[in-house]
Amino acid sequence: MTRYRNVGLFLFLAAVWGAAFMAIKAGLGTPSDPGGFFETPVLFAAIRYDVAGVLMLGYAVYATDHPVPRGRDEWATVVVGSVLIMAGYHALLFIGETDPAVTSAAAAVIVSLSPVLTAGFARAFLPVERLTTFGLAGLLLGLVGVAILSDPDPNNLLTGGTVAKLLIFAAAICFALGSVLTRRIDADFPIETMEAWTMLGGAVLMHIVSVGIGESVSDVTWTGETLLAVGYLSVVASAIGFLVYFVLLERLGALEINLVSYVAPVFAALTGWLFRGEIPTVYTVVGFIVIFVGFLLLKRESLRRELPRLRRELKTFGTRE
């Protein structure tokens, strides 16, 4: 029963985070219709976590008797999460998604490299999670997949979304490294508390960056679409989504939970098509396939062990029906 519950949470998280890529595009606006946060992407990310952080802190006060981090390990976890998982990942992602050449699906596919990058970082920081020769090949294939998806033109590297896609790639690096480092620290305190303070810390850092690069709230055009995007990203994708993420991180580990990145692009493509008319390119599809093959190489032993058990459970489930 616990396994099925984990699967349900996993699919829910994939759907919520996949749709978030579309919501980011909607909230940012476009150069031809620069409503929303097109000129202030980092501020957009900061406001998202202002709201989400306050909501989660209130929930942490209600649900736990430990709403404030204590000790060096707990605060170290908050710092790592704030800098990498929240500020680094989201600032780079939001800036990258301002480029109209980057569709929701393309951004989600680049982020799907996270499990491959996580494996590389785990080899350095979590020696128990070994990276074999096949694992190294999988890591390299993942990088090739991003290169294919970026479709760089040597004669014009600053257009066509190449720089934006590289920024999103850097965001994926931040997320993967943050996932591994928080697991390495392994501070034992409530998930609600960790999530709340990580969000608030990330929001503060992004506000500092936003001011530093000259963004201003006066440049924001508030529309109904913008408010819906902020509401969805703050409450559903952030407050609820990251609560599910950290629960699964604790249950499954850094490598397994980041596999959500391989399902999220499906929902990103569907919502991008339904709400914004975005059509994934051939490079998006091919890049995703190459990245996924890299993942299969990385996890081939785990998959080999898991398939017989999965067949037994499916057979048992069919018998009960």
Automatic annotation (TrEMBL):
Membrane-crossing residue ranges in chain numbering: 46-63, 75-95, 101-126, 133-150, 162-182, 194-214, 226-248, 255-275, 281-298
A cellular component annotation (GO) from this entry: membrane
Question: Topology relative to the membrane, per the entry?
Answer: Multi-pass membrane protein
Pfam families per the record?
EamA
Q: Mostly located where? A: membrane
Keyword Chaperone carried by entry: no
Q: Is Transmembrane helix given among the entry's keywords? A: yes
Domain (EamA): give its ranges. 9-150, 166-298
Q: Where is this protein found?
A: Membrane
**Protein keywords:** Membrane, Transmembrane, Transmembrane helix
Name the chain's protein.
DMT(Drug/metabolite transporter) superfamily permease
Q: Which organism is it from?
A: Halogeometricum borinquense (strain ATCC 700274 / DSM 11551 / JCM 10706 / KCTC 4070 / PR3)
